[in-house]
Automatic annotation (TrEMBL):
This is Peptide methionine sulfoxide reductase MsrA. One of its GO terms (biological process) is cellular response to oxidative stress. NCBIfam families: msrA. The keyword Oxidoreductase applies. It catalyses: L-methionyl-[protein] + [thioredoxin]-disulfide + H2O = L-methionyl-(S)-S-oxide-[protein] + [thioredoxin]-dithiol; [thioredoxin]-disulfide + L-methionine + H2O = L-methionine (S)-S-oxide + [thioredoxin]-dithiol. Its EC number is 1.8.4.11. It comes from Helicobacter cappadocius. Keywords: Oxidoreductase. Has an important function as a repair enzyme for proteins that have been inactivated by oxidation. Catalyzes the reversible oxidation-reduction of methionine sulfoxide in proteins to methionine. Gene3D superfamilies: Peptide methionine sulphoxide reductase MsrA.
Amino acid sequence: MKSIYLAGGCFWGVQGYFDLLEGVKKTSVGYANSNIINPSYELVCSGKSGAVEALELFYDEEILSLEEILKRFFSIINPTSINRQGNDIGTQYRSGIYTQNLDTLQRCKDFVQKLQPLYNKPIQTEIKELKNYYLAEEYHQKYLQKNPRGYCHIDLSLAQKPIPSSS
């Protein structure tokens, strides 16, 4: 199994979307690249931790390739916005891709470089080495499964549609 960490606004929707895809083996939501050990949701929302709300995604690359994950990720976020996705505003809602695997990191950078010409503005999605990841509180895990009418800036029905062919 391979892993990658994705940040695209509120982590509820990102998890809800990717949980619907074949090849996804396990997910959790948490806080990536925090300057503070094991921050709480409130601390992350204050901006003091520097953490980003992120999805930890384990996948079977024989079923779901990294390129497909990235295509799907970029189809559900606005990669040109800074510290914002939908109604979610703040540094914890910035978009990002994180990993500790340097080959995967380079593949992600190459993917974004090829994607840039499709946008009129610079892609702001950060692609960085994962420094740390702290599991979010239990009530955040699988939030949209527990609360089907909960807020989500992502159209979860997109998970049932073919991946975008652009890029």
